[in-house]
Amino acid sequence: MTHARDERNALCDLMDRLGPDAPTLCTGWTTYDLAAHLALRERRPDAMPGIALKPLAGYTASVQDGLKARHPFPELVAMVRRPGGVYGLAPFLDEAVNTLEFFVHHEDVRRAQPSWEPRDLPADLDRVVWKRVASGARLMLRRSPVGVVLHRLGGGVALGGPRQGVRVEVTGTASELLLFCFGRQEHARVELTGDPAAVARLREARLGL
What we know:
Elements: H1 3-18, H2 31-43, H3 49-52, H4 57-70, H5 73-81, H6 85-89, H7 91-110, H8 123-140, E1 147-152, E2 157-160, E3 167-172, H9 174-181, E4 191-193, H10 196-204
Parallel strand pairs: 1-3
Antiparallel strand pairs: 1-2, 3-4
């Protein structure tokens, strides 16, 4: 079993338990919408560009709505549980591409429910998450209005945002820093220090891939 499969299964178990109408941290999306998004991402490559490109977003949204119309929620979750497309044929690619994707969306569902608490990650997953944060910080923080210094509890520093000007220090575990960099600032358990105005701008910025 890989980390990607573990997170995929845990997310699907949670969605099965919560049902189709539970909230998520993805603005405007229920668990049904999230399941359709994940199924589309792996099984409808024609609609994938609209996930990132606004001019194509309308087509992607229509395909996603079509998946919901054709598949009951338990059926969509079952589709997500089985890696589709190229990820079903190449487990190494599933691990490389989907570990963070499913970790973040698992937390999107977990943290939208009452009384959530951060998970204690296995040491090897924590290392994988930090490695991805450290290598991807510049990309994930490219829209930050201020410089960012990420401090991992236990050791490790990564930089993002503008190289000149004011900087904000963000301190937390690898997983919390990942969620912060993925645009879940409000729900990430991190400590921000720096100029109050810069901190406020960073909290409100649209971060992530």
